[in-house]
Sequence to fold (308 residues):
Amino acid sequence: MSSDRSLLLASASRDELHLVFSRDAISTVRAASIVLVALASLALSACRIPGKSLASNYKNVTQFNYDVTAGPHQFHIEGYLTRTAEQGRRPGLLVLNGEPGSVDRCIQMSQSVAAMGIQVACVNIPGYGNSSGPSRFVGEPSVLASRRALDLLAARVDVDSTRLAVWGLGHGAVAAGLLMDYDTRPRALILQSGCYDMVTLWPEASLRTKLSILREVWPSKRVLNERSVMAHLPPKLEISVLIMHGERDNKMPVRQAVKLADALRARGARVSTCYFPKASHDLGKRVEPEMRAFLRDNLLATTNAAAS
Fold:
């Protein structure tokens, strides 16, 4: 992935857009986009209340903040580390949050994972939580932030760098998938409610999803392809993957998850899937039993085997 790619996205030419809009439709969509952005900004400013750091609510949670640079732009990334009570070098789980408010739930969830003997880092990708943006629809800054978080987690003296897993939620699942395409360190990957083939998503996406994309990038075929996990899969993958998705997800269709699972299996990955028939985009706590069982089998089981 080229280092200057993300900063050139806004300049993508209209003739690259593979689904042609009429000029009137483009004007309408852009106007609606501007209104939505303005309303969102007002809502955020109204709801932002100063308070204590989330880490102050837990004895075993500390801040995991850092900065990344993409071209001339610097991004401050918000993160939290939940430490296990187990001694020695323990497996590490990096959680990439790409959904509103998901870092709060991540810290709550991390307590049960830490009790399993796993160090957990919860990170907001650019544009989410208190991480600076814009996200550029999971552009280069998100991938850089994800890779840097993995670097920092792996470098800790209380983390076994050979036993790393990454869990991505929503747009964080896209960042986790792109990280898998280029980084062989994670032994296990959990992808939840993500979109993995942006080029095929655009024609079938709802108007709401299209407006969301247009707020961040101009969706040319080149721009969408750069953000597609499917487009960059290596020919061979030695990794265990758990894909979780709601079958009633109107934001990111479940067929995106099914298509990725097939492609990963074809490349040798060990893939487990869990599709929730009555669930929409936000899967909530229903994913936790599947997630913990997957981590137990793919991080803790290998740790115990190495120790025996």
Summary: The two ends are 40 Å apart (CA to CA). The first strand starts at residue 61 and ends at 63. Residues 165 and 188 are 5 Å apart (CA to CA).
